[in-house]
Known about the structure:
This protein is an all-alpha fold and 74 residues long.
Amino acid sequence: MDDAWEEHFAKSDDQRERYNCQIQDMLTNAQLEQDYQEYMTLVWDAGYGYDSAAYEAYWKRALMYYQNQSCPKS
């Protein structure tokens, strides 16, 4: 009789672990989607529409410009 209960609870544990993994995957996907939407909102608000490559290129050029500026010596 004890073996039957152990088998029953082992199956329940397996199902719980599987569902937990699926829930974690869904939460991760939801977070990734939210991050993407927030990023694309930044791109849109900056005036680039859906062109995230142009947005990234702008920031890359801006960073290179400021890195190449010489600092005034005191």
